[in-house]
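input
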Amino acid sequence: MASPSDSRVLLRLIDICLDYGEWRALHKVNLTIETAQVHAIVGEHGAGKSSLGMVIAGIRKPQAGLITFDGRSYRTLTLKAARQLGIAIVHQQILSLNERFTVAENLFLSSAPFHRLIWKQKTVQAVADFFARYHLTLDPCIPVEELKIPDRIFVEILKHLYARPRLLILDEALEKLSASALQQVLQMLMEFEQTGMSVLFITHRLDDIYEFADKVSVIKHGEILITDDVWQLDKLNLIKIAYTQISQEPTRENLNQEFYHLLKYNEAILRNLPVNLLVTDPTHRIKLVNDYCRQYFRLETGAYENLPVTQLVQSPNAEVAQLLAPPDVPRVSQTFYQAPLTINGVRIISNIKTFPIYDGSLLIGNIIIIEDITEYDHIQKQLFLSEKLASVGLLAAGVAHEINTPLEILYTHLDYMKYRFHTEEFHAAIDTLHEQIAYIANIVGNLHSFSDHKSSIPKEMELNSVIQRMLTLVRHHARRQQIRIHFTPSSAEVFIRAKDNEIKQVILNLLKNSFEAMPAGGDIFIATALVQTDGVNAVELTFRDTGCGICDENPNNIFLPFYSTKTKGGSNIGLGLSVSYGIITKYQGTIILENTADSGCQFLITLPVAS
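output
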């Protein structure tokens, strides 16, 4: 009686050996594929991946070993026998399509259940229904000879899926598909897997493996090195197992001076590996930059070869620089989180991982992986800031309430004393106290504004006209302080929903902040634009000045209550930008601050467009 695990086994290879003359392609290969399972095979060129697929499909006959399929054993399979068992194979280069036939006719000819449909109309309708079921936009009536190579491969895969095989072998067949076709095929494969179909997926593209494969086997020099669940292996370990080898280039001059022990990756995996990856030699000179990294940071091909890694990848953090080019030989992998980096002029926040490469006990290089987390870091800081403001807001509301009560009592008693005693000198003293109490009341009012996040009843307003009116009020003061204001409104009107006074308060707070940052004069640049954020229409307000910028390691601290960068005395109590932050977030907007490259700082405000 078969065990429960055996009942799920669809295909099993036992000690399969295949030779091409004196060259050994496969040596004692053992492999098990279960029903309703996607099993990936990965390895470098010449490892034996395609040979393995052709043995299962009956194209090649092994010299030794045993094949079992659905419980029955075979010494070898013929192409016809494999097809009768429900085994189909799709190659990247060899297509079985009839170019003079239409797409529908090619799919029709491969499908046994419809072999009696002889009318073209029924053939087209049957294929059209199949396409409609899986939301495919390909025209069933177009001749295959008019299709480009990616679409022909797409049709070849659809042809075999239409016939619903029990085991589909994809021999690097997804490599040349268009992005949209690839997503459609992956979706169909996952649906077919749920109905019982198995897939042997031969590929170089690790991202596809992690997207939909269940198990993965690594093949090298004709032997299976490891088979495991995909989730048990991370990409880096899979690369190390499948694609590492020593590369020697005897045609180079000064071979002994060169890094000939370079880690060599297969070109296909290098092109498609979706991480920023660099390889350096033991002296920390760059020997390899993968295509993803080169495109991500817009690096010119060849410009970085043999360059010290610290010249290409720069950081103000001394620990990061030491991680990239350590003075001592690293023995283990190392990681640095949230590291500031500049690569080819692009400033990012990143997680950096380094992995030493050894040939035995000899260090032959290092792998450096750079993960750009700039956007994540920004969102995280915004979240921390919001939490801080929420906590301080609760405190501010309580403080404001407690201060208001004694202030009202003081004000009442002072009024009584003023009208009870009529000395001029005494009245002057009372007026001075009134002034100071009014100033305290103003602070308390600001605290209320900061802590009040209740939804008000906003109205629709045109932002450009609001800004124009505010600029008219401050232009005289700006001229007196030698500040030039440049406003570039959007070409179209931009409408938002908010309280008019609150938006004016935000604009005045930003102007006041810039005026104080430029006591000797300067420029303020204001611009509005209609943008899309995550598919939603929004208004973007940019506010930039040429002042001294924010001298703080974390510029977002400026949104905290009572925080001020002004060292001189004055009426600035550090609540203006906190209140502005509260107003913008109340209307589901965002406000971002950053220091500009030359001087000054820039605020970027985004608000939803009024529907």
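quick obs: The chain has four domains: 4-241, 265-372, 377-451, 459-608.
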